[in-house]
Specification:
Elements (H helix, E strand, L loop, with lengths): L1 E7 L4 H7 L8 H10 L3 E11 L2 E9 L4 H6 L2 H18 L4 E3 L11 H5 L5 E2 L2 H18 L8 E5 L4 H10 L5 E5 L3 H15 L4 E3 L2 H7 L2 E4 L18 E4 L8 H6 L4 E3 L2 E4 L16 E2 L1 H11 L14 H14 L2 E7 L2 E3 L1 H10 L5
Helix pairs in contact: 6-11, 6-12, 11-12
Length: about 350
């Protein structure tokens, strides 16, 4: 039996009160104080994970800090809390541990955590990129957008994840704009894309102009605050926000019912898998980062597969191959931490006069 663990944390104090209703009576500052001192906890055991090539079990281990705390507290303190959760995973018997949500963002994206554990660590970013691309394709199709004819933009294209996404999208679109702040890096990426695919990608340093033209946007910058506001987006656009913290302002969800914002894909895991914990997804589905950890365990690939901020096209292709081998597939889309229903997508398509 292969074994893995996945580190989770409350996105907000509301996640704590859902798990422990009595905690709702406490002021938020008290709850945040409790989060700071909580030791890592075994949240649930993951059972029933089987594919034709193996079986595995695992655990959700909680690092108690909220997203806000992970961004605002001293980095060394936050990293130590994540490492403590990793050591808890080791004691449970995990042979690999995955980092979830902001635990994969803090500091050097898992490198320091891995150096302080005796088991390999993965951020899940390779499969996150794979499902973001797959989700973008699905969302475009649902909105009646042909990627081959659409104006596609990658925001934050000079970053490791952004450049990887751009190189993958360049395989299937004709009109690609690369946005970033470093003109030299953009030029080098455009040259690489031309050599690999023959596509002549445009480069841009003007965010608003880029977004105003784009039918499909994939954004993954390192910005601390949201950079994409409602007034920047083209009517009927699809926006895939891979960044953490989010690049897309929450105002977009409130003010633009004529655009479709997604955060990547919801992954269907093999039948019979029981998470024994409600993290807000439909039964039998998971985040891509969770799924990558599960895949590596099933494959007995006990290695730091996705670590740091450098993700390659080869890694994305490889984890996609493993997903197909073990029966993992895209099951749907999510937006602002919630699964999107087909009805919600159809409502946006109808708003702009398209058929989902």
């Amino acid at each position: 039996m292969e074994r893995f663990a996945f580190i989770i944390h409350p996105l907000t104090t509301a996640d704590i009160t859902r798990k422990f209703p009595l905690a709702a009576k406490l002021p938020e500052r008290i709850l945040e104080g409790v989060c700071r001192i909580l030791p890592p906890l075994e949240v649930s055991k993951i059972t029933g994970l089987r594919s034709p090539y193996g079986e595995a079990e695992g655990w959700f281990v909680s690092c108690g800090l909220t997203s806000k705390q992970m961004l605002e507290l001293p980095e060394d303190y936050v990293l130590q809390k994540i490492i403590q959760a990793g050591k808890k995973a080791e004691k449970l018997g995990a042979k690999i541990v995955g980092l979830g949500a902001f635990t994969a963002v803090v500091g050097d994206a898992g490198i320091t955590v891995a150096r302080n554990l005796n088991i390999p660590v993965t951020t899940g970013n390779s499969y996150t990129v794979a499902t973001a691309i797959a989700g973008t394709r699905m969302a475009a199709r649902e909105m009646g957008i042909d990627l081959a004819r659409a104006e596609v933009a990658v925001i934050g294209a000079t970053g490791s994840i952004g450049s990887t996404c751009a190189r993958i999208l360049a395989r299937e679109c004709r009109y690609l704009t690369l946005y970033g702040r470093n003109g030299n890096k953009l030029q080098r990426l455009a040259q690489k894309i031309a050599a690999e695919t023959g596509l002549a990608a445009k480069i841009s340093s003007n965010l608003q102009e880029t977004l105003a033209r784009a039918d499909v946007v994939l954004t993954v910058t390192g910005a601390v605050n949201a950079i994409i506001e409602p007034e920047y987006l083209k009517r009927g656009a699809v926006v895939c926000d891979v960044a953490r913290p989010r690049d897309v302002s929450s105002r977009v969800a409130q003010e633009r019912d004529d655009v479709l914002v997604i955060e990547g894909g919801v992954v269907k895991v093999p039948d019979g898998t029981e998470f024994n914990f409600n993290f807000g997804f439909p039964p039998g589905t998971a985040y891509a980062c969770m799924a990558e950890t599960m895949l590596l365990a099933l494959e007995r690939r006990y290695e730091c597969f996705s670590l740091g901020r450098d993700i390659t096209v080869a890694q994305v292709d490889e984890i996609s191959r493993l997903a197909a081998k073990h029966g993992f597939e895209l099951a749907g889309l999510r937006s602002f931490e919630r699964a999107l229903t087909r009805e919600q997508i159809q409502a946006v398509a109808r708003k702009v006069g398209k058929t989902a």
